[in-house]
Specification:
By secondary structure, the protein is α/β, with parallel strands linked by helices. The chain contains 7 helices and 5 strands, in the order αβαβααβαβαβα. The chain has a single domain, classed as Glucose-6-phosphate isomerase like protein, domain 1 (Rossmann fold, 3-Layer(aba) Sandwich), CATH 3.40.50. It is 57% helix and 11% strand. Helix 2 runs parallel beside helix 7 and helix 4 packs parallel to helix 5. It is found in: Cytoplasm. Pathway: Carbohydrate biosynthesis; D-glycero-D-manno-heptose 7-phosphate biosynthesis; D-glycero-alpha-D-manno-heptose 7-phosphate and D-glycero-beta-D-manno-heptose 7-phosphate from sedoheptulose 7-phosphate: step 1/1.
Length: 197
């Protein structure tokens, strides 16, 4: 096995997947940025959830908003629903793992808030339950998926935003998800701070 060649292929595949996703994601990304910015300007918050690598992405996104991304600005209201181990384990133990996010959305979500629902497959049951809970709370949903969007794509409403990476390989989808999250952070900052370039 030639490790250098294998590594080079990983870089090339990643770059090609990202470039191929631009046309599919640019317009819905702009919609998601506008929805999230409007939510924040109206004193709302963004709740984020996902499992595994998607949980890490939810935390990454919340950290970039709460602290800062690339520009100095006031902190923005974002909560990763993946971080409170006592809450997660008590819900999973007393009820079931499928409710670990939906119960938090019902408790913390308010009309006008936004749920960022992340699943590479689009079929994560607990993320799907969180989407249902967000709809019950009159929240908009921004769904970040891949592999055709799965069942999550089918449960979204017309005013939700679906960011579906046109890829099937989980690693490539996750790499585009990270770029997508950075685009969201950059776009929110630019709209809030009036950046023109």
């Amino acid at each position: 096995m030639d490790l250098i060649e294998r590594i080079s292929r990983q870089f090339q595949d990643s770059a090609q997947t990202k470039l191929a996703a631009v046309d599919a994601l640019a317009a819905p990304l702009a919609d998601a940025i506008e929805a999230m910015t409007q939510c924040l300007l109206n004193n709302g918050k963004i709740l984020a959830c996902g499992n595994g690598g998607s949980a890490a992405d939810a935390q990454h996104f919340a950290a970039e908003l709460l602290n800062r991304f690339e520009m100095e600005r006031p902190p923005l209201a974002a909560v990763a629903l993946t971080t409170d181990s006592s809450t997660l384990t008590s819900i999973a133990n007393d009820y079931d793992y499928g409710q670990v996010f939906s119960k938090q959305v019902r408790a913390l979500g308010q009309p006008g808030d936004v749920l960022l629902a992340i699943s590479t497959s689009g079929n994560s049951p607990n993320v799907m339950q969180a989407i249902d809970a967000a709809h019950e709370r009159d929240m908009r949903v921004v769904a970040l998926t891949g592999k055709g969007g799965g069942r999550m794509g089918e449960q979204l409403r017309p005013d939700d935003v679906h960011l579906c990476v046109p890829a099937d390989r989980t690693a490539r989808i996750q790499e585009v998800h990270l770029l997508t999250l950075h685009c969201l952070c950059d776009g929110i900052d630019c709209l809030l701070l009036g950046v023109e370039e």
